[in-house]
# Entry
Amino acid sequence: MLLEQRRLWAGSTLVALRQHGLYICQREAGGRAVLEVELPYEEILPVRVERRNFVPHKKLLSLLAIVGWCLFTFTLDHRQEASFVVDFWLWALGLSGPLLVYAWYGWQHRWREFVLLTSRSSIIFADRSSEQAALQDFAEALDRRTKSYLRHEYGQVNPLGPIEIQLHRLQWLRNLEVLTDAEARTSATRLTGRLSLDTMRSMGQDLETPYVN
# Structure
């Protein structure tokens, strides 16, 4: 699955689900890559989504003040003229039009953000109305793909192998919600032959993370 978003004057952001990890590429408007990396699925979970709204109030107020000052100055200089009312509204529309366009563009492309968060990264997209469904679908697909990969690569147990390491791995998968409590406990019982509540414990030892980068 692949998702690419382009921004006017700001380049593009591309993310893709590859065989072993999440590919991220950010490019400038000229096409030069400023970030290109592939995060292994072992370093993705948990996957979270944030939506942020921020409006540059000070900048908008400054622009409104400039428009108001221009209209006030125009009123002082031309209020005695016969065509004052018509000219005033033409000036008002001419000055406020670009301000409205700026506000609309900012709200659609710059002031609303969709942030895709993983354990090692935060990827920021413009939260455009037309792309919200696609962004949400990609986040959900990343979560499913990551959990499926981890389940396939690390979810199997071998009763003939090192029990402590495998118990720690099952605990790791359960903490990431890759395995349910029932699935993790069933696999742990296969390893230890015990049905007690202590099945998932590693006999008091601190073990290293089962994935080594």
User: Anything to note?
Assistant: The helical segments are 57-78, 84-109, 132-154, 163-175, 181-192. The first strand starts at residue 2 and ends at 7. The chain has a mean pLDDT of 82.
